[in-house]
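Hi V.,

Quick status before I head out on leave. The structure for the redesign project is tokenized and pasted below; the design run finished overnight.
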């Protein structure tokens, strides 16, 4: 539950203009973190932010838990609230790539055609594994790259009364601005997304367990590899309706290795912690694109399209690359 304290609602002034974030009205991304502890602190900043978007003709969207949604809906007033789209956080934040891809899809299809997209979102941190927490932090940083140069404002909520200190602390490193009642101010602790991405990758991948089943592959062996993957997915308990996405994801990585990498590779498949995992090793290539697969592909660059698809098909994809080649680890929930 959100740790709200009982305080009276904020009464908006007649000239409540809630200074729009810098860059509003232009193709400039504004990405802010709002760290709050009380209901009043949330209201003082979030409500004017939403009202300003409605006045300016933005596509205004709130992605939050029901308690926060109900609170904001009640403070906005019926006329303003009717212009805000409220989205359930549980469905939106199923996984980092799911959230990113959904945001891409909705901004392009529904929000940008109406003008500027103005989002107020509260990520779900409760119940996450350490890996998921790290990947959600990475997600917050990647947003600065993924939506750069677009007419988008994103204000992310962090309830410091309930969240772990390290989550709140890293919010100041992944958001260029910190939001407050008087507008946004530059975060002095903001870290370049490439640097933050590299720090996330400093955690090495553990080796596959001894129970993992290994299979090598090379040119002409993809049909047999797909059969092997389907059989392993079934043996390890992946539901039938999720077997095909898993097979397709691994097949895309293997195909890319054969066509653009060293021409041969190996993979390991196993189940662990409620997930089906697959490591694919490319001993002949070092990747240089840190953000590969985090944006829809442009032009005819097949490797971008492949990794965009792979990330969307999996819960989490980890990539480690160096002098010994590249390893891609795909996680699919059982």
């Amino acid at each position: 539950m959100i740790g709200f304290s009982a305080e009276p609602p904020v009464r908006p002034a007649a000239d409540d203009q809630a200074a729009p974030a810098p860059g509003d009205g232009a193709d400039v991304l504004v990405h802010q973190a709002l760290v709050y502890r009380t209901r009043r602190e949330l209201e003082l900043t979030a409500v004017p932010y939403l009202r300003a978007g409605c006045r300016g003709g933005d596509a205004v969207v709130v992605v939050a838990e029901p308690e926060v949604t109900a609170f904001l809906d009640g403070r906005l007033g019926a006329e303003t609230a009717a212009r805000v789209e409220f989205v359930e956080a549980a469905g939106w934040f199923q996984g980092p790539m799911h959230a990113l891809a959904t945001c891409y899809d909705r901004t392009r299809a529904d929000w940008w055609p109406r003008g500027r997209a103005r989002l107020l979102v509260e990520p779900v941190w409760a119940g996450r594994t350490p890996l998921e927490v790290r990947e959600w932090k990475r997600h917050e940083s990647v947003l600065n790259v993924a939506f750069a140069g677009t007419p988008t404002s994103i204000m992310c909520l962090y309830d410091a009364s309930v969240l772990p200190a390290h989550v709140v602390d890293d919010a100041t490193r992944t958001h260029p601005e910190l939001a407050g009642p008087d507008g946004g101010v530059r975060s002095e602790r903001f870290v370049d997304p490439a640097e933050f991405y590299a720090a996330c990758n400093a955690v090495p991948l553990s080796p596959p367990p001894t129970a993992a089943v290994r299979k090598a592959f090379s040119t002409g062996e993809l049909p047999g590899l797909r059969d092997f993957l389907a059989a392993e997915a079934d043996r390890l308990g992946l539901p039938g309706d999720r077997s095909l996405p898993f097979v397709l994801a691994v097949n895309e990585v293997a195909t890319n290795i054969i066509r653009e990498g060293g021409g041969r590779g190996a993979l390991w498949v196993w189940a662990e912690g409620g997930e089906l995992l697959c490591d694919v090793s490319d001993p002949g290539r070092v990747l240089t694109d840190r953000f590969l697969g985090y944006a829809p592909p442009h032009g005819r660059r097949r490797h971008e399209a492949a990794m965009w698809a792979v990330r969307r098909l999996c819960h989490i994809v980890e990539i480690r690359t160096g002098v010994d080649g590249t390893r891609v680890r795909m996680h699919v929930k059982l």
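Above is the designed sequence. The two ends are 27 Å apart (CA to CA).

G. will cover questions while I'm gone.

Best,
W.
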